[in-house]
């Protein structure tokens, strides 16, 4: 019997197991979690012949290194980075065969933030509430990788990859986020709403899987205080007391008391996951929300 | 009732009280169970219910605002008993806020029937209502960096039980050994919106 597992040799700054998350449990206080750049995670799964729900590795800036105990096919996508197998350069964005015992090294990104590593068979840690994702807000799912962690792998489906190589969007030089105003834009002055949708912001280094924090002009409130806690969606732009917008990403809390000035279009969130600190951010309005 | 669009596929329905929010939540669950509503998440909160993963939030908004929400049916489900040692570090402060003795805090709290208004903050953390408004207490001025798992705590109109050790600013009045959250258990959460709860004093109070 083959020992299908990956041994973590270098965990990197923050490498987690991610799949499509655990939506449907927000009423219990359970964040959705899941890969921040869902497009990239789906793509690397396709490249290695996995179903889209298979769990992959999500790295942060400086990659990771793993040694498979059996021969596997891997693919790296998301943020571009060098890939080597036993020190020899290998392809990024394409299926790569890694022999049993060889060292697969995912290097530091040349742009973007998060690289994704798909492995034939998928990462097969035990699911929690139907997902293998690490949720950094609530601690559900497997712990972030540490040196020496052994990750079990699932059985490959022997499905031929439908693609050998795939174009992937370059990480953004400027992050343009399309927003729909509301539900709490009326908690801000009209001037603040104009500022929000016209002035430049920058990605703050305090950003993480919970939220993309920004630096830029503070948004002034027309109503003081906190809202009674209310449900939060993915992409909600919450404005804490310092006035700087925070875009909620996959590990966001399910409820919150700071007003949400707008919601980012879901298609723009993968780019948000790849925006390095310092990247310029613009929020542009898509349409006026309809108020029944 | 106001229904505010949240992005393209969600709706935040705002009502005027916690009771109305609970009634609306019960009504939305009923509609979903009967196949009248297709939605990924129904998230009740203090004065709102969020519906996320809707095909046509604008249409649902006009439907909802045109309809009356029936009062929440009395649930037939059993009451969950949570044994508590009323010996929390903030018991004296809460007693001072309430203007009663510490033993009286325990007596009043344990003789109240609570229900879970909503969950949030952490998996399995319920915001329980039931105490009359005169027993509202503020959060602590300085939150604790670590509140032990099982702490029974008060803030505003709510009682909550910390499912795991975490930072927190609520007033700690006691502690329970009851496991609020166990993802290997089905259901993982002991408390979900609508669950009725009673706290049962144990040990020296």
Characterization of the model:
The complex is a heterodimer of chains A (292) and B (205). Chain A is mostly beta strands. Chain A folds into two domains: 5-152, no CATH class; 175-285, Beta Barrel (Cyclophilin). Chain A is 8% helix and 27% strand. Chain A has helices at residues 38-47, 190-198, 269-273, and strands at residues 5-10, 16-18, 56-58, 64-68, 72-78, 83-85, 88-90, 96-98, 104-106, 115-119, 150-152, 175-181, 201-203, 211-215, 230-231, 236-238, 246-248, 255-256, 260-264, 280-285. In chain A, the strands form four sheets. Chain A has a seven-stranded mixed barrel. In chain A, a hairpin with a 7-residue loop joins strand 13 (201-203) and strand 14 (211-215). The longest helix of chain A has 10 residues, at 38-47. Chain A is elongated. The N and C termini of chain A lie far apart (62 Å). The mean pLDDT of chain A is 94. Chain B is α+β, with helices and mostly antiparallel strands and 205 residues long. Chain B folds into two domains: 2-65, Gyrase A, domain 2 (2-Layer Sandwich); 80-201, Beta Barrel (Cyclophilin). In chain B, the strands form four sheets. Chain B has a four-stranded antiparallel sheet, with helices on one face. In chain B, a hairpin with a 6-residue loop joins strand 6 (114-119) and strand 7 (126-129). The longest helix of chain B is centred in the first third of the chain and has 16 residues, at 18-33. Chain B is elongated, with a radius of gyration of 18 Å. The chains are: A mainly beta (292), B alpha+beta (205). Chains A and B meet through strand 15 and strand 19 of A and strand 1, strand 3, strand 4 and helix 2 of B.
The number of E-state strands of chain A comes to 20
Order the strands across the largest sheet of chain B as they lie in space.
1-2-4-3
What does the overall shape of chain A look like?
elongated
Helix content of chain B: 10-25%
The largest inter-chain interface, given as chain pair and residues per side, is:
A-B, 37 and 40 residues
Task: Give the radius of gyration of chain B.
Answer: 18 Å
Bin the strand percentage of chain A: 25-35%
How would you spell out the order of helices and strands of chain B? EEHEEHEHHEEEEEEEE
Q: Please give the count of helices of chain B.
A: 4
């Amino acid at each position: 019997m083959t020992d299908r597992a990956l041994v973590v040799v270098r965990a990197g700054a923050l490498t987690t197991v991610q799949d499509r998350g655990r939506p449907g449990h927000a009423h219990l206080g359970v964040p959705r979690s899941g890969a921040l750049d869902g497009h990239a995670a789906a793509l690397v799964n396709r490249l290695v012949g996995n179903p889209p729900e298979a769990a992959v590795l999500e790295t942060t800036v400086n990659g990771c290194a793993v040694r498979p105990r059996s021969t596997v096919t891997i693919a790296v996508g998301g943020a571009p980075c060098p890939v080597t197998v036993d020190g020899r350069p290998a392809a990024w964005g394409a299926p790569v065969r890694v022999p049993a015992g060889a060292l697969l090294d995912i290097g530091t990104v040349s742009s973007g933030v998060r690289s994704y590593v798909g492995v034939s068979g998928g990462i097969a840690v035990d699911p929690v509430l139907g997902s293998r994702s690490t949720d950094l807000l609530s601690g559900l799912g497997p712990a972030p990788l540490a040196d020496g962690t052994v990750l079990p792998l699932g059985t490959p489906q022997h499905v031929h990859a439908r693609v050998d190589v795939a174009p992937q969007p370059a990480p953004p030089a400027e992050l343009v986020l399309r927003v729909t105003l509301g539900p709490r834009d009326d908690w801000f002055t009209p001037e603040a709403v104009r500022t929000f949708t016209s002035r430049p912001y920058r990605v703050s280094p305090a950003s993480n899987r919970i939220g993309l924090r920004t630096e830029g002009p503070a948004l002034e409130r027309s109503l003081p205080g906190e809202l009674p806690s209310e449900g939060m969606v993915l992409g909600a732009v919450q404005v804490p007391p310092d006035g700087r917008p925070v875009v909620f990403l996959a590990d966001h809390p399910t409820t919150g008391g700071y007003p949400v000035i707008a919601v980012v279009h879901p298609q723009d969130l993968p780019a948000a996951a790849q925006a390095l600190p310092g990247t310029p951010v613009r929020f542009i309005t898509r349409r006026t929300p309809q108020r029944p | 009732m106001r229904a505010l669009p949240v992005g393209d596929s969600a709706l935040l329905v705002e009502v005027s009280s916690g009771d109305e929010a609970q009634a609306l939540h019960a009504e939305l669950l009923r509609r979903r169970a009967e196949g009248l509503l297709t939605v990924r998440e129904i998230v009740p909160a203090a004065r709102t219910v969020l519906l996320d993963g809707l095909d046509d939030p604008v249409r649902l908004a006009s439907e909802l605002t045109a309809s009356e929400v029936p009062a929440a049916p009395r649930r037939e489900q059993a009451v969950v008993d949570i044994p508590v040692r009323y010996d929390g570090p903030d018991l004296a402060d809460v007693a001072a806020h309430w203007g009663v003795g510490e033993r009286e805090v325990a007596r009043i709290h344990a003789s109240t029937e609570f229900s879970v208004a909503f969950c949030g903050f952490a998996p399995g953390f319920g915001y329980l209502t039931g105490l009359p408004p005169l027993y509202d207490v503020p959060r602590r001025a300085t939150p604790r960096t670590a509140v032990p798992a099982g702490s029974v705590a008060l803030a505003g109109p709510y009682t909550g039980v910390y499912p795991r050790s975490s930072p927190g600013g609520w007033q700690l009045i006691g502690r329970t050994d009851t496991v609020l959250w166990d993802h290997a258990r089905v259901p993982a959460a002991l408390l979900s919106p609508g669950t009725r709860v009673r706290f049962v004093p144990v040990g020296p109070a």
